[in-house]
Amino acid sequence: MSDDPGPGNPAQQALKYAVVAGSRGPRRDFKVTVGLREGWDAEGRVYDISEAVRTARGWMRRRVEAGLPALSGMFTRGEVTYAWPRPDGSVGSDREPVAIFSGEAVHAYLGGLLDAEIEIMLNELAAELGAALGQERLYVSFCDRAWILDAGAED
């Protein structure tokens, strides 16, 4: 058996990777969390995560077709659990399925954009997801900031 890594060896292949010019920059990660159960009742319609994916892809395509930048990321399905005090002193708790869109505003592609511009895109995407999935509240985070978008709230 030879110690020569050879061209087919994974270690030899790894040596071919190099940092892409212009790709280094500050990390700007984001997350949008949107419920998959419509409304506040346990009987509300539960959407499949594919509905969220379809909505996000439509938003991305429209932006790119208009010559605008778009965020890319990945969807994961999760479950939010929470508890609250009831007026009678007891405690209620519940859980709800959610879609989580997370990613990074990659420096190589979006490095020229200000944080405020990324936040506008996140709010736009979150609002489309919320409307498509019948949600009142959406949870967004970007870098070291987090906020809640509410369909009934006024600025």
| Number of H/I helices | 4
- Strand arrangement, major sheet: 2-3-1-4-5
**Annotation, overall tally of beta strands:** 5
Q: Which value, in Å, is the CA radius of gyration?
A: 21 Å
- The shape is globular
What's the helix-strand series?
HEHEEHHEE
Plain-language structure description:
This protein is of the alpha+beta class. The chain has a single domain, classed as Alpha-Beta Plaits. 28% of the residues lie in helices and 29% in strands. It is built from four helices and five strands, in the order αβαββααββ. A five-stranded antiparallel β-sheet has the order 2-3-1-4-5. β2 and β3 form a beta hairpin. The longest helix is centred in the last third of the chain and has 18 residues.
Features:
Alpha-Beta Plaits; alpha+beta; 28% helix; 5 strands; single chain; 155 residues; 4 helices; 5-stranded antiparallel β-sheet
